[in-house]
Design a protein that fits this description.
With 179 residues, the protein is of the alpha/beta class. The protein is built from 4 helices and 9 strands, in the order E-H-E-H-E-E-E-H-E-E-E-E-H. The strands form 2 sheets. The chain has a 6-stranded mixed sheet with strand order 4-3-2-5-6-7, sandwiched between helices. The chain has a 3-stranded antiparallel sheet with strand order 1-9-8. Bound molecules: 1-O-pyrophosphono-5-O-phosphono-alpha-D-ribofuranose.
Amino acid sequence: MINEIEKVLVSEDEIKVAVKNLANQLNIDYAGEKPIVVCILKGSIFFTADLVRELNIPVTIDFMSVSSYGSGTISSGELKVKKDLSFDITGRHVILIEDIIDSGNTLYKLKNLLLERNPASIKIAALLNKPDRRVTPINADYCCFTIPDEFVVGYGLDYDERYRTLKDVCVLSRSVYEK
Ligand code: PRP
């Protein structure tokens, strides 16, 4: 595995600090509210798990599984809902937790889909933002790290379902996906 990783882009320690800072901000911005925190599977599992445990406001946790990718590295732009929310979000404040915003296709379509359910608000909290790849007009309301256009894995992010459990966000060697 070691040769498959080119370098660490964001370390475990940097992630911990950023998650804590984000939680502090959410604690302020949502004081007195009980938002629904939506973990967008699967990439956001660790980010969501770490973030919600730093919150001191009451939250409802829900999960949604959507995909705009096949097994490759290019977003198809078509959103497929594989698992919908368990809760009704009508009138609720919703925080979408996303590991990465790349082309923006996933969040652009997902946010529009959820807005049709008349929530009180929808905000996006992203661990990573890759603005160079954006093709849709969507941005995170909260973002931990802006990163260059490199293929990253770890802390939930995968390539073909591998590398999700790495503790750092790492750049994957090109040789892995250009084979
Ligand atoms: C990844 C990531 C985002 C999306 C971002 O999910 O978790 O949801 O792609 O890309 P975009 O901005 O170009 O749409 P993926 O579909 O790979 O599923 P996964 O989280 O289960 O790995």
